């Protein structure tokens, strides 16, 4: 009567997308966009959600220099000082070419880890673009 009815799968995918967007918000100002489902952040390249991997490093505990870090920051990756009050969130696309490096406050670690778990699980929101 008042527009089209959503199927149960569409409702679940919409709910999952909202959950993913809420989990992504505190992580360095990142947003989740549709068509195709991807992560975006100011000054970063977009990364598709499907097949993405997320690594969370905690300030000074993150001693290694990853290829993604070098890719996103260039030669400055060697000089970047790690701060114990921050988390460094690295998102790598399944294609191996797209990546983003974000930082957020260490006090948001629980939210960042929840976000990573949502992405690593087969996410129903991915069905919106399949």
Report strand %.
Answer: 15-25%
Average pLDDT score: 79
Number of helical elements: 3
Question: What structural class do the secondary elements suggest?
Answer: alpha+beta
- H/E element sequence: HEEEEHEEH
For the largest sheet, list the strands in their spatial order. 1-2-3
Helicity, as a percent range: 25-40%
Distance between the termini: 28 Å
Oligomer: single chain
> Which value, in Å, is the CA radius of gyration?
16 Å
Could you characterize what this model shows?
Strand 2 and strand 3 (47-48) form a beta hairpin. It is built from 3 helices and 6 strands; from the N terminus they run αββββαββα. With 130 residues, it is an alpha+beta fold. The strands form 2 sheets. It has a 3-stranded antiparallel sheet with strand order 1-2-3, covered by helices on one side. It has a 3-stranded antiparallel sheet with strand order 4-5-6, sandwiched between helices. It has helices at residues 8-24, 67-73, 109-120; strands at residues 31-33, 38-40, 47-48, 53-58, 86-92, 99-105. The model has no long low-confidence stretch (mean pLDDT 79).
Structure at a glance:
This protein is an alpha+beta fold and 130 residues long.
Write the layout of secondary structure elements.
Blueprint: H1 8-24, E1 31-33, E2 38-40, E3 47-48, E4 53-58, H2 67-73, E5 86-92, E6 99-105, H3 109-120
Antiparallel strand pairs: 1-2, 2-3, 4-5, 5-6
Any key phrases for this structure?
three-stranded antiparallel sheet, 3 helices, alpha+beta, single chain
